[in-house]
């Protein structure tokens, strides 16, 4: 089945905009598969760290990307995804701020993106796929019939991150979080390869004033229209 005939919904946008949450809920509602492409880049960052490879050594990075022993344990329609790297459950460490920062840096390297492309495309299986990331609608699934690009002000995204940390029992300083949010935006959108930007045919949803439910409603309406 080609991408054209298969239901693929791409959800792109900057970090902290709520893509992951919306993607999980919509995938569950539609009973579609889920691709958290950020998790692939994060796991790759962990693998590079574990192998103590210099991140300027593109040849070594390309080799790791091609041979990455990565497994997502998920069930169709299930919101929870466990990630296994080299046979070890890395679901928790994968989500740390530090891993995200390293992932963002390494994700700007062309050979790494090229080596991880097929792995991402392979997630497209019937009955459908919700793919969340930065370049899902522009590069990985350019023919997807449904494309969404979520935005929210940097202040709002920093606030959401602070609340998330507090809910986990951690502390955060809003100005530091805001600086990190802005630095990640800059890194992801200014890179040469697959920069963060909306696909021409994406529906842009500003979520600054919206609840998760309201965003989900708009996304589901797009699929069902
Ligand atoms: O969505 P996330 O925070 O888990 O992604 C972590 C980093 O991975 C992000 O800052 C940039 C990179 N990434 C990417 O370059 N392309 C994607 N499709 C997804 C993530």
From TrEMBL:
Keywords: ATP-binding, Cytoplasm, Kinase, Nucleotide-binding, Transferase. It catalyses: CMP + ATP = CDP + ADP; dCMP + ATP = dCDP + ADP. It is found in: Cytoplasm. Residues 10-224 form the Cytidylate kinase domain. Its EC number is 2.7.4.25. It comes from the Bacteria. The keyword ATP-binding applies. It is an enzyme of class 2 (transferase). The keyword Iron-sulfur does not apply. One of its GO terms (biological process) is nucleobase-containing small molecule interconversion. One of its GO terms (cellular component) is cytosol. Transmembrane segments: none annotated. InterPro entries: Cytidylate_kin, Cytidylate_kinase_dom, P-loop_NTPase. Belongs to the cytidylate kinase family. Type 1 subfamily. PANTHER family: CYTIDYLATE KINASE, CYTIDYLATE KINASE/PANTOATE-BETA-ALANINE LIGASE. This is Cytidylate kinase.
């Amino acid at each position: 089945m080609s991408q054209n005939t298969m239901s693929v919904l791409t959800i792109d946008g900057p970090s902290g905009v709520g893509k992951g949450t919306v993607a999980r809920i919509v995938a569950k509602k539609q009973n579609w598969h889920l691709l958290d492409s950020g998790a692939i880049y994060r796991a790759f960052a962990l693998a590079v760290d574990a192998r103590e490879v210099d991140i300027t050594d593109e040849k070594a990075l390309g080799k790791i990307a091609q041979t990455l022993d990565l497994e997502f344990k998920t069930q169709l329609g299930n919101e929870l995804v466990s990630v296994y790297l080299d046979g070890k459950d890395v679901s928790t460490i994968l989500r740390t701020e530090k891993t995200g920062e390293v992932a963002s840096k390494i994700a700007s390297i062309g050979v790494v993106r090229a080596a991880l492309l097929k792995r991402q495309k392979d997630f497209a299986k019937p009955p459908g796929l919700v793919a969340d990331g930065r370049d899902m609608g522009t590069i990985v699934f350019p023919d997807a019939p449904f494309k969404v690009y979520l935005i929210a002000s940097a202040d709002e995204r920093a606030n959401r991150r602070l609340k998330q940390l507090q809910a986990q029992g951690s502390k955060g300083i809003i100005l530091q979080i805001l600086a990190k949010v802005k630095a990640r935006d800059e890194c992801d959108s200014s890179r040469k390869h697959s920069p963060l930007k909306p696909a021409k045919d994406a529906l842009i949803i500003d979520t600054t004033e919206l609840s998760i439910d309201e965003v989900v409603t708009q996304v589901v309406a797009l699929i069902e229209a």
